[in-house]
Every structure is written in C-alpha cells, then in structure tokens.
Specification:
By secondary structure, the chain is an alpha+beta fold. The chain is built from 32 helices and 21 strands. Helix 4 crosses helix 32, helix 19 packs across helix 32 and helix 21 packs across helix 25. The longest helix is centred in the last third of the chain and has 42 residues.
Amino acid sequence: MPVIGLGDVGVFVGLVTAPVGRDRVTLVQEAVRPLFDRRRTNLEASISAPLDDGLYVPHIYSIFSDWDLLVVAALDGATFALRDFNAFNGFVSDPEKDHGFQHQSLFGFVPLLPSNRECPGAPPPDALTAVKTFLATAEQLPILTMTQLKLNPVLMMRGGFDFLRWVQLWLNYKVATAGAVPCSFLQLQSMGWNEITLLIASKSFAESMSVLDQFREESVNSLFAGWPSHAQAAAALHWVDSVFDHSTRNCHLFDAAWTTAGFRFELFERWIQENERERIAVEAGAVGLNISHKDRVVKLSAIGKPIAPPDEKDRCHFTSLWTSRPGHLGSLLDPRGQPEVRLTLGKFDFIHPEFAMREMSSREVIAEFVAKACGATIRDHALKTYSLLGQFLPYGRPLPPVAGDHYYYHREMILPLFRISSKDRESIRNSCRKLALPDTVTTRLLGVISNYNDGIDDRLLYADFVDLAGFVDRLAEDIRLRDCSKRDAFVEQLDEALRRWGHAYANRIHTSPRFSQERDVNPLFRGAVQQVATALTGAYDILCQAPFHRPAPWEEQLGIPPMLATISGTADVMSDRFALELSPRDAFHPESFATVVGHEVGHVYYENFYRMETWIEYCLPESPLSFEDVPPPLRELSMEIGRDRRVRVNLTKRLLREVAADVFNLAVMFGFDARLFLDAYWFNFLQSRSALASGSELLPNDGPEHVRPVESMTVLLRLCLAVCLSRPATGVAIWGDWLESVHHLPFLSAEVAASFQRPMSNPYLNYLVSSYANMANSAFEAAYETQDVNATTARLSMRVEVKRALIQRGEVPLFNPNDESQLTFVSTLCRAYLTLLLPLPDPGGRRKKIWLVRESDGNRRRPTPGSSFADFLADPFGGTFSWKPETRREYFKWRAATLSALWDVSLKRRCARVELRKEKRRVEDAS
C-alpha cells in the first residue's frame, strides 16, 4: 500500500434548518456567514500572520432533505465545529433579531490520497491545496451531493484502519474512473457514525448518482479487482487474504450510503436579487404561483450558466411537502379547486399537486424549488416546506438486490453473542425485587437493557454497542450477586453507573440516522463523536485492564469490569469505578487525555480495587505508625509566595491518594520519563479550571495572570512527591532541574524553589520513599509483565521515537498484535504525541513561556515573532493554542493521526472481544 497520511486541515460540514417561517437568505446573510467571518477575524487578531485565504470561508448549498442548508469550509482546528458554529453565538447575535436555527456539525480529516486516474501512488498535494481545488471547482458546478458511507462494521472490526485505507484508495480510483462524467470529488475520513464522507460536485443530480452507482453494492472482492497497477492489485489481494476468509470476502463493503443533494446557494440568492421587483409585482395579489414554469427555467439558467441543458438521462423525481400556518390551509390549496391535493398525516399537511413526484431535469428541479421557496404564497401561508429528490439514477435503473450474506455476521454471529435474552431480563427484574430496589431505579435499569438490545439490533450501529456489552453484563451480574446488607450504598452506585451509561449511549446514537436532526443537550458540542468515543473507550479500557492479568480474558470477575470513556459537558476530566468522563475539548485534543488518563487509571487501580484507604494506613512499612501518627513536620508543609504571603499545604490522605495516582501514571503511562511527565502535567494544569484565578488571587502582570498560587503550589508539591518518591536515586535532581527551567512563574523565587528541597530532606519522608518506589515498580512490572524495568523502559523509548516520526509526518501508527501489546501501543503513542507538543528546553536550559496572555478585556494578546513564547500555549478558556499559522496546521495533523491510531487499536480490540465471546460460548456449549 502506498504511504497515505492525513492532511493538516480538516473539512467542516454544517447542516442547518431555518426556523419555521424564516427567510433562509436573511438567515445566511445575518447569521451563518458572520459566524465564519467573526471566527477568522478573531483568530487573525491573535496569531503572527494572516490565515490562508482558503480557511474559514463558507461554501453554502441549498439542499433537498430534512435540512435546508449545507455549509462546507476548510478549518485548521476543531474549535469552530465544537463551539463556534452555534445559532446563538454571542459574538454575532443581534438582540433585535432572533436567528436561532437547528444545526449539526460534521467534521472530517482529509486523507492524502493519489488524485490522478491511475492511482500509482504518486505524492498527492497537501490537504489545503486539495480542499481549495475541490471547492474552487465546485463553485463552477451547480450541484453538490454529500454521501455518508458506512463501512460494514464486521469488516471494520477485522481490518481496522488498514481496511479503511484500502477502501479509500479503491474508492478514489472508482470515482476518478467513473466514465466521462465531469465531476469533482473530495473524500473525508469522518469521525461520526459513518467512516467516509464523499463530496461530489457535478452538473446534474443524475451525473452524481451515476458515480455513486459504481460502488454502492460492491463486495470485499472488489478491493483487488480492476486496479491499473499490478503491484497494487497484488498488495491488495495479499492483504485481503491475510485478514478475511472466503465468506467474508463476499460481504458488501458498505452497509449504508446516505446521500444528501443540493445546489449552490448563490443561484437561490441571485435569483431573488435580480427578480425581486418583478416577483413582487407578479405575486402581489396572487394566491398561487403565477410565474410560468418556462420563465423560471429561463431566468435561472441565465444566472446559473453551468447548469446542464435538458437531457433525457438527467431526470429525477421531485416531491414537495408543505406545512401550513394554522388557519391558512385553504389559502395554500390550489385556487382552481383541483381534487388531487394529497393530505398527509405526519408533520406536513399536504403534498401539493404541482410538485408531487414530478419527473424533471436538474435545472427544472432547482427552478421549481427556488420559485416555490421565494413565492409570496408560501412565505405568507406556510410554516415549513420539505423537498425530496426521488430516484435519479441514469435511465431509472433500479438498485441491485441486496445479497443475503450482507447481514450474515450481524444476524448469525453478533446478535446471539451479545443480545440479552428475555429470560435473562426477567431474571434481572426478579433480582431487583429481591433487593427491594426503588421502582425508579429498576425501571431505569430495565430501560438500559432495552436500549442496549435495541442498539445491538441496529445493523448500522451495532458495532459501537459491542463496546458496551461488558458494562451491561457486569451491572446485571452485580445485581444477581448483591445482598441486602448494603442496599443504600449499592443504589447510589447503581444510579451513578446508569448515569454513565446514559452518556455512553448518547455518544453512540447522536447525529446518527436514528436522530438525524436531534439537538445535543450539551451546549459545547453539536457534532458527531462515535469514532472518538470508540477510540478513547478502547484506550482507557486497555490501560485499566493492564495491571490485571487473568487466566481467561472473559473471566472479568477476576479483574475490573470493562470501563467506558464518555464525552459530556464536564469541566475537567473525571473518573470513577465505571467510566472516564471528558469534555468535547478534552476528547478532541489528545494531550489532555494522554496526560491525565494514567492518573485516573491509578485511582481505579488503587482506590476502587486495591482499597486505597487501607493501603494508606500501611504505607509506612518500616513503622507501626498509622497516618494520624505521622508527625506534623511531615503532614504540614509551608512554602513562601512573595514576601508577605504564605501558602500552607497539608499532607492529607487525599493528597497522598493523588500522589499515588501520579506515581502510577509516571510509571505505567510515561515509562518513568520524569521530564515529559512534569512538562505534560504542568501544561495540562495551566489549561484546567482549577488554575483560574479571580479577584485578589491574581498574580502580578509579568506572570500568567490566570494561575491561582495556592492551587499551583499544591500541584507542584504533588509532582515533586511523585517524582522524588518513586525514583529515589534520581528524582530529586530531575525535579530541581525542571523547576529551575520553569522560569515563567514569578512566585517561584529561589527561596520558594528551595522550600521544595526541604521537605525532601525531612527524615520522616524516608518512611514513604521505599513504599512509593516499590509501588511504582510493582505497577510497571505488572502492567508490562516484566522483571527488568530498565530494559523495558529503554525499549518503550525506542517505540516512542518511531511513533513520533510517523505522527510528525501525518502518518497513522497502526497496531500490530504480533509486534507489541495493546498497552505498549497506547502508552508509547500518547508519549510520542506529547513529545511533539512539549519539546525539550533550548541549549541554555531555559524554557519558553507556555501560557496564553490575555488583555484586560479577555481577548488574546498576539505574541510577537521572536518573542519568548513557545509555539504551543496553554489557555484555560480554550485549550491548547498555537499562534503560528503553519504550526496550527501541523498541530491539527498530529491530532488527527493520534486519534486515528487510538481508533485503530480500539477497533481491533473490539474484534478480539467478539472472538473471545465466540470461544466462551463454545466452551459453555461443550460443557
């Protein structure tokens, strides 16, 4: 396979529904376009050079679907899709005008695929050039179709990211060689319920669909059929044979191909502008549409010259449904009283006979739609119009029949293994009754089981619900084995588990075909997250399971239950015995996940399953002292901030728990790389909510104004103890060097820095040193199944360098179970990504400033070229910020590669779980 990387920009696709009864042209001019203009203006005010002219420029289409508008734009970051594309964005909202609108954000990475017809593997252009070329070409073509392709879930589980790459290469060839159809196309690697989003610009709807008809019904065998390069065909054949068996090779590639079609909004906009006076005169007293069909076609063709002339092949069916204002239904009916008006029973009142299932050419459809949407009758009497395109394949050829083996793996393998039977459901209900659980809790639990079964039964989404199977099974098992002695505590835990399930369930159905127009209750994000949730759940569960090695992987009672990672509205990363909870910002910026996930796993490891409270009492192995007997000089540490202020930090049980989790993170995730651990933790802290200062706690102007002294000193103490206690031989020296290089904190004077050394020389700490050092080594040895810590850490460092080089080029490191363990892959991948963001200090030993400076009004201050600021800055109001345009694009590429790599290992882990369930069922049946 030729080397394929991910580009340094992404493509945003926004779907918008205009408010009922609102004019879409005004909506675009006063609400949609200003969102992009404002984002670009604000960004350029705080970076070192102007953005490329192809970024944050909206290309808008009027579409035939549940949605009214489709907006396409190239972005150099995910923040706009996460937050700024919002109907009520405070920067552009006009209090006198309410332009609220329903919307969804779809976001995709750009794979750098060969762009010519032969696909010989020649180096493709950079992503921004590819996107700009497509959008520029699309501007000359009136029609755009967006097709969301869902790859066969079983094939994705078995092939992982490799399978996606082969399909992308093959699809690129198929579209480029789809006959003499003049079209432009762009592939995106989606992050939602579908894996590929294909944008096609053409002169007619029939042309676009004739391209789609080339591959909709193909099987795996197609991946190595018809390639022009013998070497590439041989490589594809070898890979397919090594991954898929004969029966699988006959499965369809795609489980769904959802297409949304539309036309350039400029045609709509210009028609109104050039015909406003005539339209008003003609329609002033009209009840119906008095502009003739012929006039509409002629006028629209004159404006939109690229629209193809009528062609017997360019035919499609057009349907229009209208919802009337209360009491206005009679005004919308045909004034001639024709009886063929078709009333409906859904959310629309009727199908107007003038537009019901008419067969027309592409330009006629657009003309009808524009005239209808602009007509005074519709504007005055209709609340909503909903237009659909029917079958528009060349010559009206029907789709090929669906092969029987298309659903084989779902119906015959997935459902029997993962669906909870009615018998088991009744057993769970009876167990709830025996425990006398509150009726509300029982109802919620049974609802979870119903929703889970419903998800497993969904042929498009079932693979995403496979990740939730172990969680649901463990809930059911806990209820069966629980007694009534601690019912109240169990009810509280169960309630928390059900809440976590709700977040995980929402992540998997959000923006899917089930709820295509659902608005997210989380105001931070209205986009698709399925693949990100899969990637982070798999990685988190890998880390949680690593220290627990079981005789058989399905014997989950010997270890910890399967863990989840959910994306919700939390302010900071949190975890409990059920799940890791992240905000959308943390989920789409891997540096936060990579830094703190090991810490949260440490809590799971020690507190929930090794009873941390008990461990704390006996953390002084050389002394009979309990924690309460630890002398005050050790429990209360005093450190100076400035001349007149003192901060007192108490060495409490809570602090020791945090240090224990830090030690686990340093050992297992960072492989005892203390310098990277310190850099990453401090950078993450500067972005956290707990770092924000207020009122009198603000520091002097020459420091990071948002940092709270008390909180920062507590974090520094934690880091100091974690490094110095876990690595007694070198920890103190590493800590001193790192603290000296962090020169951008004014309260870290020489005296304050020295105060960290005094606790480390306290003889009472000797009681803790051996305990924490042993704990760190034990966690590392258990996780990596080794007795030679030094040799293993050296091997891990080499793998970090290999992955770092790949990520830097935008290539996705792929998991190979024959080469490394899942834990090794995830930990070294996260470290490799962090080393790109947090480079070592310059030869002088001084580090550049890593906080983002803001003005008194809250706006970002632009760092000047050649200043002492690093390329990447910590911003608690918006995450990692890069102020150099070229660095911003590099950062985007690294994130895309890292998230894709986590997704790859999670998919392969999912496949392994399916195989383990099959083996478990075989053993049970045999016994």
